[in-house]
Amino acid sequence: MTSTYKILVTDMNTYEAGYIHGAWIDLRADDIHVQIEHVLQKSPNKDAKEWVICDYQGFGDLDIPPCTSYAWVREVADFMDEYPDIAEVLLEHFDMELDNAKIAAVDQDQGIFDKLGDYIKEVVDECHDLPDYYKPYIDYEAMAQGMEDRGEILCIRDNGKIYVFLPFDPV
Question: What SS3 state is found at 122?
Answer without folding.
Answer: helix
